[in-house]
Amino acid sequence: MWLGRWIVGMLALIVPVGVALGESVDGLKEMQAEIQWLAWSDQAFERAQREDKLILLDLMTVWCHACHVMEETTYADPAVIRLITERFVPIRVDSDQRPDIDLRYRSGGWPTTSILLPTGEVLFEANALQPAELLDVLQELDRVYREHRDELHQHAAEIWAQAQTNRASTAIRDGAIEPSVILQSMMIMSRLFDPIYGGFRDKPKFFEPEAITLAFLLAHDRQDPDMLRMAVLTLDQQQKLVDPVWGGFYRYAEERDWTKPHYEKILAIQAANLWNYLEAYQATKSIRYKTVAEGILSYVFRFLADRERGGFYASQDSDVRIRGPKPRVIQGDDYFALDDRQRRAIGIPSVDRTIYVGWNGQMAKSLFYAFHVLDDDEAKTVALRTLDHVYDHGYRPNRGMVHALFGEHAQEMSFLSDQVWFADALLAAYLATDEGRYLTRAERLVTDLVSRFEDREVGGFYDHGGTVEGRGLLRIPEKPLRLNLQAVLLFCDLYYVTEQAQYRDLADRTLRFVLGDSRPHPVAYTALATHRFLHYPVHIVVVGDRLHPMTTRLFRAAHRVYFPGKIVQLLDPERESLEVGRVSFPRLESPRAYVCTDRVCSPPLSQPQELHKAVHEVASLASSPALPELKP
Q: How many domains, the chain?
């Protein structure tokens, strides 16, 4: 039995697509030693239609163990090579390079093996297939297409028409944005929580960093011990996925108790876990969470940092492939059980040296958090160097950030994820340094984001900026809910920092789009965005010469006070205005700190030890209507 599912008959247009690695080749020889994979391109689709052949889409990633196995077995089988060469147009796509294709074509995981009509609609999809299984699939689908070509194309046309009708009927949600959204998310999280091993599913176990962030937030806001237990139990249990030798986290676990790891290491996973463990250290003062965070930093700086140019590489494989006269593969189960000396004697798992803009933004923001929580000046230095390098080489005026940098070259495509995460990191850089150029860059990027990605008619942001080939399911406009919610968080923070109403309005209409969307909402992300929208954060403003020792002490102490969602801002009287919204701070002879909410500010504080008490006293006076005006 095939390990996939038919889309024939109903042609449910799944909304995920892939990315291309090879170059287009027009003439295929009768016999070949290997499959001649094509890039996702107009030329590949034109060839499929000209030759009236189905498309085999291999959606993979460079770090994917199962993808490597399928490449070395199924796609190396002579009968498979012959059949694909003669009757199909093979396209290979790297999901990391093309998140738009991944969104529309991936089913379950990697690899996703799909058979498409020549116009790109899905007929069949599966994950990894053995040679005999793939041969059966290919032969049967080729027969079905030859016998039912007209019906399949007609049904595809009908579904496209229905998709357009559905889009035209979508509308932005009316009415108030209610805090009940947050309570509903709490109840769902409590129901899904694994009380023995942590996490929010049975198996497999994946990291869910937004759920941890929300649990800490609600534990603090509501003094809820159950929410705190959710966060710390999960963080304790998932440490089974930490590399005990080099630090850093593996990708996920097959079993409920976080065992049987998949050993790939992904930059975005390191960034998210770094943030979670730093917050756990702040919230609990437990040194074990600090140790994990420091292990992540050590791993990332050692293996994923581009020390020469700046920026962070994308991922590291789980296996080691030894070349030479007797090539062999050492699996992750065996390799990662070794000590440092043994590993280095064998060799290092391959690193994908692509610098993805969004993932670099995530890591940079987490590095600023490490700077604040651990007093780690190197983390701040590396984060700033990363942002400068990626912005200098990846920003395109009026178009935003490119998706990826390959050495000195860039992938000239624009995706929503890169704009949102990188702008978020630029705002964090401004708050960490008081360097106005980072705020200017963040606001410039948001201007480009709104101009190129927003759906002005029904709200929300599309996943790409119109720079990709509109073939296959790429013709379906997609507005990913998670990224739209991350954009809400960005817009809220920009409003709280600048008090510019345009950001409040952006947050409002984007959140209304998400809440009005009929798709299942990401539980934790929806609650985080709604909470940020409805609750004005505690705002600590340090006023003083940035070179003055007391300014530095007050600034660092403000960051060490644990209060989820707080904003700390430095204002230097010699460099900038002392106004935040309608509040004007006095120019004094020596540095002072002020703790503010939407209703009140504390008296000027001259000593770092005064901040903790002041934050909690002033926070008790805060109100929580949606994005209120800051008043003196």
A: 3
Judgement on whether residues 96 and 150 belong to the same structural domain of the protein: yes
* pLDDT tens, position by position, 454-497: 998 889 999 998 655 679 999 888 999 999 999 999 999 999 99
* pLDDT greater than 90 at residue 426: yes
Residue 255 and residue 136 share a domain: no
Question: Phi, psi at residue 62, to the nearest 5°?
Answer: -70, -25
Q: Which pair of structure tokens corresponds to residue 454?
A: 């927003």
Task: Give the predicted TM-score (pTM) of the model.
Answer: 0.92
Judge if 25 and 66 occupy the same domain.
yes
Strand pairing partners for 94?
60
Contact call for residues 90 and 7 (beta carbons, < 8 A): no
Q: Mark which of 117, 149, 168 sits at the end of a domain.
A: 168
Q: Residue 473 has what DSSP assignment?
A: G
Of the candidates 381, 435, 384, the one whose C-alpha atom is nearest the C-alpha of residue 546 is 435
For residues 139 and 219, membership in a common domain is answered with no
Mean pLDDT score across all residues of the chain: 91
CATH of the domain at 598: 3.40.30
Cα 279 to Cα 282: distance, rounded to the nearest angstrom: 5
Phi–psi pair at 197, nearest 5 degrees: -110, 5
Domain that holds residue 337: 201-304+315-352
Classified as helix, coil or strand, 279 is: helix
Per-residue confidence (pLDDT) for residue 598, from 0 to 100: 85
Same domain, 161 and 64: yes
Taking only the tens place, the pLDDT of each residue in 600-611 is: 899 999 999 999
